[in-house]
Amino acid sequence: MRLVMLLVLLCLGGCAKDLTGREPTTKDSLPEPKITYLGVGGWLLKWKGEELLFAPSFSNPSFPPILVAANHKRIDEYMPKTKNVTVLLIGHSHYDHLLDVPVIMQKYTPNAIAYGPVTAGHILAAESLTSRFVDMEAKMIPVERDGHAVPVVVRSNDERWEPNGHFRFLAIQSQHAPHFAGIDLLPGDYDHEVLSTLPKTVFGWREGTTMAWLVDLLDDDLKTVIYRIHYQDSASNPPYGFPPILPDNKGVDVEIICAASTDQVELYPEALLKITKPQKLLIGHWEDFFGNDPHHPQLLRAQKGETPLFDRLKKQYPEGQVVAPYPLTDVALPPLPKQE
Ligand SMILES: [Zn+2]
Prior knowledge:
This protein is of the alpha/beta class.
């Protein structure tokens, strides 16, 4: 515990670039699949010349956020300059996940299709982005019905897999952890209301349905699964967000979890990790993003003074397998399996 604290302090001093105390995670020569942590829930994944973006948040208004609007200057400063993003995945519709998405889609990812819950689509409609949005709720894999876990088998030819180039992905029913003392501060949805203007207050960015994502990276035949990534942008109680049963003997290579509000749910992420058994665990949404400088991140307010999540996870994994990267840095992923 003390060692982790020391490492955290050293990191915050600027000498190292990830909270596990390993060497800086930015390396230009990392092979594909390559992933960059963009801060909050944002990650940019590169694979075979195509890119998949988990909805990033760069505007990050100061605390307490009341009136919120996309900050074009910050987005321009921090959003990687790429035109190859073909897929943008949205987990839920709170402002710290969706506020910047309209600007990013219009200005930085002109070739991207966004996928997500109905509420996100109805918010994006305010910026005439409906034709570039796919509602994934009808295809979403259920995990629970009437309080009981539902075991679902998803085979390789299941039509709930959504294909896009060298990616395919499943939306999985998940859950948003309460923010504080068991209370969800920003509930609600726009399931039956299409917006004509973007919400102006933090309360207008309603949560909607929360989805986890399972992303497969495909070979050039667009059938063979080379790599598998599971992603959550909010902590959840088990079994929310758990992948379905996949009878293809392909394990999860990389798990991406959310550090915020883990103390508000049960057994997170340990219960999930028992199912996905990833080779590498990446921790996102760990930094205090209110009015932040992504180059000098601070721990979440709720976690200041202690690091229970990192401490616990470090005990379960060999060194180097758990990484909480600094925003705007690349993370080395487990190597590709050997091809025959
Ligand atoms: Zn949220």
